[in-house]
Amino acid sequence: MRNRILGVALSAGMLVAAGPAIASADTTRGTGGTGGTGGWTPVTYTARDYAAGNVCSFELKEDFPTQGVEERIVAAYPDGSPLRTDFRGPLIARFTNVATGAQAEGDLSGAGTLYNLPDKSSLWTIPDNFGLTVHAGDPYHAQGEWVLSGGSVLSVSPTGQVAVLYQAKATDVCAELS
After folding, report:
1. Rounded to two decimals, what is the model's pTM?
2. Exposure winner among 30, 126, 147, 171, fewest CB in 10 A?
3. Strand partners, 169
4. pLDDT by residue (tens digit) across 70-92?
5. For residues 106 and 85, what is the distance between their CA atoms, to the nearest angstrom?
6. What is the tens place of the pLDDT at every residue in 137-166?
7. What is the distance in angstroms between the CA of the first residue and the CA of the last residue of the chain?
8. Residues with Cβ < 8 Å from 12, sequence gap 6 or more?
């Protein structure tokens, strides 16, 4: 089954399935920019391997055979730190139950916006779908690899506590691979 979700990173006990590893960000604002890119810069996603019991009851591997996500800083604070960052583009994730070899693909393509608020909290709005990794011991959500589809809104407190404020549908990838 192919699911459309957007992967972006949350630095908390609950992590987004496809977190970007960004060496540097283009701080070009708005739709202008250099080189005709409109300020969009590529985002690179790295493979992940979660030990049995950390996310699923089995060892879960996640890799990204297709990547093309870009980010653009649309608004910044006076010190240059990002206020609003938009994400867009194609991303395919492959989830693997290492013990059985069972696999599922997720089409993580789409768009989303990250708002970094003055109090160091953040708000994520995703009109498409979203991949979410919840680790064991998270007090706010059941552990697992989740696909939130049909739109989501998430809030992350300054201390890293995540709250799902809105989700249309949740699919349990761990159950799908069991």
Report:
1. 0.73
2. 30
3. 149
4. 999 999 999 999 999 999 998 88
5. 23
6. 877 778 899 878 889 999 988 987 778 899
7. 14
8. 156, 160, 161, 162
